[in-house]
Structure formats: C-alpha cells, structure tokens
C-alpha cells in the first residue's frame, strides 16, 4: 500500500491538538511533544500495529503525576511554602529514572517536558530504566546550608513513599547537587530505616556514588560530538568551541573537549559571557563556580586578554562547534543565524531542549550538524544507571572503567540514531533518528508487556 505522508501529518496534528487540550498552558511540554510527533510519521507507516494500539497517545500521558506542598522554616524561624512535583512518566523499560530540579521556574509543564524527554533519552541508552522527572520552585540561591537541609528533609518526608530502587530513582539536576542529594537520601534512610543506596544516584563516593558521575553528562556531550564529526570525516582536534553555561555540564564538556584537542574560548552564566581567545582557564572556572559558588564575571578580574560581556550573547562568538549547556530555549532563531553567519559547523545540545524549534530548523537548513539533547546529553543518566548497577552488586568501579563504559554507550547511541535515520530514509537527521529509535524501543516494550 502506498504511503500517504499528508494523512500521517494530519493524524499527528490531531494528536497534538488533543495534547494541547488536555495539558493547557504547559508550553515546554507542548514543544517537546510536537518535536517528537513531527518525526514519527515514517514509523507508523512501517509499524501500523503501534498506531492501532495508540502507543503514541499513551506515551504523551504520564503514568502518574504527584504534586504536593513543601513547608519549611528559614533561619529566622518563618514558615515558607513551596510546591514540588514528581512525574512518573513511563516504566515500560524499568524503574522511573530522572533528576530533581530546584529553580523558581519549575512548574508542572517544565517537569512534564523533562520527563517526556527522559523516556526517549533513557531508552536510547539501552539500559533498563524508565523515564520520570521532578522538582520544586524552591530557589537554593542565597539560602544557607541549614535552610537547604530543612527544605530537602521536608520534601522527602512526602516524596519518600513514592520512591524505591525498583520503583523510582531520582538524581540531581539544576539546583540539586551532591549536597542536596545527601540531605534527601539521609531523610529517606531516616524514615524508611533502610540503606537503599540504589534509590538515589549522584551520591557522594563515600556513600554509594559512582566515579565519573559528576563528569558524565559533559563528557558524554563531547563523546557524542566527536562521533558526529567522525561520521562526517572530521574531528574535534583544532576546532574552536563555545559552551554556554558554567555549571556541571558545561565545565566537564569543556574539560573533555580540551582533552580531545579543541580550543574552548567562551562560557557564560545568567549574568554574562567571558571570552578568552587564549583558551578558557578551566581550573579558574572550577574554582569560581564549584568552590566559591561565584559569578563568571570574576573570571575576567585581573586577567589580561579576557573580555567580560555583561548580559552578552555567547552565540555571537565565532566558533566551529557550539555546545548549549545551560537551560531550555536559550538558543533562538537569531542566535542560530549568528552561528551560521560565523561559520559554525556543529551544534550539540548539552542542556535539555536548549534550542528553540525555529533555531533547529535554521541550523539544519543551513547544513549545520545538529545533535538533539535526548541523544547528546544521555551520558548523565547512563552513568546513573551504571551507579545503580554498582549499588546492586555492592561494587565500586574505577574512574577509567566507568568512563570507558560511558564512551561505549555514547558511541552506541550515536550509531543507533545515525543508523535509524538512514533506515527510515532520513540520512543525517539525528533528531528523527533519536526519536524513532527511542520510540520503537519503548513502544515495543509497552506492547509486549500489555501496557495498553
């Protein structure tokens, strides 16, 4: 039977309109769903049984959504109240797996977008983990350690009942690092009277954490970038790179890019951009951001040859490779035009959905290699799954061995995305390749398990 692309597009649009109706006001979730739906037409043509079982509709609806208040006391004894969320999106492949984000911007739509993306990302790793996400509109900036501890303990007093190493395994995200994971896990242990180290990932090395976990997302971004370049007869060595952000993902993306011979010349935070044409001094960035918890403007103080652009736009800095590693929708259509005009060859998403749809279209139309977040930044959750393996076997692997496993997984994700795009007649389209590969793995599992 001849395929009918127009009919498939019409079906996808109808499904998208239903998502809008059922989830009003959740713009980030709408964006994530649309980006996936736009690529799935060829799959339904070849696998009509998945359409008949309404697998796409099921994937767009979380299995469970938990919303609750978090009361806590500040250092002045005043009661504060925040809202928290955990969206357990899909468990066809394993326990829900995904981070917790503490940031004032967090609301249900952000958590659902992140959870939806996590389902596909986790499927691409090939590891037995489902997808979920959580967070709170609590802002840890300017809060004391004692305030953060009280908040984490209050949050866990409600959330613990929904977690478990075989049920739902959170990790960190924006605003949630090893300190916060420690407070959360400590409260979980206190309440349950069980040392289930596999119920959280991103833990400290002294209490069940994995070597290379802190570095994993950033390293994975660069491993995937290198695979993309090699697939197109190029390499990272000698390339000029810019990396937005200066948090965990950005720092370790810069570290691995430098190790592979790239020259990183710019990074940023929400206040501005530093440009160092001699190459970013990574140890200086680490000291400012990891030890002093300072702002990136400090990098330029007393350092010659460095420009600090307050409120500046990092995407206007000429480069061969751009790695957006800060937050969602940070790279717009105008930014994409600036990158193209300056000769950028490749953009790989280190953050979750950092490029707007218009930016993605512009980059791809201009022939810029584009790596989507669900494939590019899967290294963090992949290494979290490796941490779960170590916890289950009461083992602890070396840094070198864990990094080698990470490199293998990222190469496999690249191969899977690249090969799937080729197989469905979309050569070089990493967005479609990653979406289709992830959808097929989850969809087949749901059908096989009767989760319909």
Please, could you describe this protein's structure?
With 452 residues, the chain is of the alpha/beta class. The chain has helices at 5-22, 27-37, 41-46, 48-52, 55-59, 108-124, 145-159, 178-192, 213-231, 248-259, 282-291, 333-341, 357-365, 373-376, 379-392, 399-423, 430-449; strands at residues 64-73, 79-90, 96-102, 131-136, 168-171, 240-244, 263-268, 272-276, 306-310, 321-324, 346-348, 369-371. Strands 9-8-7-6-10-11-12 form a 7-stranded mixed beta sheet, with helices on both faces. A 5-stranded mixed beta sheet has the order 1-2-4-3-5. The active site is at residue 133. The record marks 173 as: Important for catalysis.
SSE pattern, N- to C-terminal: HHHHHEEEHEHEHHEHEEHEEHEHEHHHH
- Assigned CATH architecture of the largest domain: 3-Layer(aba) Sandwich
Any idea what the CATH superfamily of the largest domain is called?
NAD(P)-binding Rossmann-like Domain
Uncertain regions: pLDDT < 50 for 5+ in a row? Answer: none
Strand content: 15-25%
- CATH topological fold name of the largest domain: Rossmann fold
Query: How many distinct domains?
Result: 3
Reading off the top of the CATH hierarchy, the class of the largest domain is best stated as Alpha Beta
Query: What gross morphology would you assign?
Result: globular
Distance between the termini: 27 Å
| Total E-strand runs | 12
Largest sheet: 7 strands, mixed
Secondary structure class reads alpha/beta
Strand order of the largest sheet: 9-8-7-6-10-11-12
Mean pLDDT: 96
How helical, in percent, are the residues?
A: 40-55%
């Amino acid at each position: 039977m001849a395929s009918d692309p127009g009919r498939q597009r019409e079906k996808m649009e109808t499904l998208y309109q239903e998502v809008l109706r059922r989830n009003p006001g959740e713009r980030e979730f709408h964006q994530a769903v649309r980006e996936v739906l736009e690529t799935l037409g060829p799959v339904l043509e070849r696998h009509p049984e998945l359409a008949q079982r309404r697998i796409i509709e099921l994937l767009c609806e979380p299995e469970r959504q938990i919303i609750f208040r978090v009361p806590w006391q500040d250092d002045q004894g005043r009661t504060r109240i925040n809202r928290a969320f955990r969206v357990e999106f899909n468990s066809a492949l394993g326990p829900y797996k995904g981070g917790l984000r503490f940031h004032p911007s967090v609301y249900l739509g952000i958590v659902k977008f992140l959870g939806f993306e996590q389902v596909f990302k986790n499927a691409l790793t090939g590891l037995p983990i489902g997808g979920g996400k959580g967070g709170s509109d609590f802002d840890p900036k300017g809060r004391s350690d004692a305030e953060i501890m009280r908040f984490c303990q209050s949050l866990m007093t409600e959330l613990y009942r929904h977690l478990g190493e075989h049920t739902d395994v959170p990790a960190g995200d924006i605003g949630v690092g090893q300190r916060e994971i420690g407070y959360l896990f400590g409260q979980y242990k206190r309440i349950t009277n069980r040392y289930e180290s596999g119920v959280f990932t991103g833990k400290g090395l002294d209490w069940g954490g994995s070597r290379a976990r802190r570095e994993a997302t950033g390293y994975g971004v660069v491993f995937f970038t290198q695979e993309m370049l090699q697939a197109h007869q190029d390499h990272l060595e000698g390339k000029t790179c810019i990396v937005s952000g200066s948090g965990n993902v950005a720092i370790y993306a810069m570290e691995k890019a430098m190790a592979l011979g790239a020259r990183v010349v710019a990074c940023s935070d929400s206040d501005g951009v530093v440009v160092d044409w001699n190459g970013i001094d990574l140890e200086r960035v680490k000291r400012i951001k990891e030890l002093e918890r300072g702002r990136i403007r400090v990098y330029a103080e007393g350092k010659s040859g460095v420009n600090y652009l307050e409120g500046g736009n990092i995407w206007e800095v000429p480069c061969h490779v751009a790695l957006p590693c800060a937050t969602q929708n940070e790279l717009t259509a105008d930014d994409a035009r600036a990158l193209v005009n300056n000769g950028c060859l490749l953009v790989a998403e280190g953050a979750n959905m950092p490029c707007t749809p218009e930016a993605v279209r512009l980059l791809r139309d201009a022939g810029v290699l584009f790596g989507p977040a669900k494939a590019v930044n899967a290294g963090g959750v992949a290494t979290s799954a490796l941490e779960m393996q170590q916890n289950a076997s009461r083992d602890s692997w070396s840094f070198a061995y864990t990094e080698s496993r990470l490199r293998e997984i990222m190469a496999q994700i690249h191969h899977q995305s690249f090969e799937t795009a080729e197989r469905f007649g979309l050569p070089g389209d990493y967005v479609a390749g990653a979406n289709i590969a992830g959808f097929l793995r989850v969809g087949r599992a749901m059908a096989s398990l009767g989760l319909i």
